[in-house]
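Throughout this chapter, every protein is written as a compact record of paired, labelled lines. The reader may check this reading against the record printed directly beneath this paragraph:
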Amino acid sequence: MPKSKVRKKDSPTPVTDRRTPVKAKAVGPSHPIYVIVMLAMMLIGLLWLVVNYLASEKIPFMADLGGWNFAVGFSFMIVGLLMTMRWR
């Protein structure tokens, strides 16, 4: 059986990073209005869906929208949830 070759050992010095470090911008907390708008969007979407289930046939423009009421309600909620990603 042939003898295996001896491998070279890695050099003991660590590899230095060639990139220059980039300093991140210091950003403060979100404005309180941002939080209010974010929560309001989610609540408006929820209320739209609840009103759709309870009284959509009694409200003329909601009855005209039909199944699009779900798209409107979920759109409000999705916008509110997307706003949470930028909340600090």
The mean pLDDT is 89. The first helix runs from residue 32 to 55. The chain has three helices and no strands.
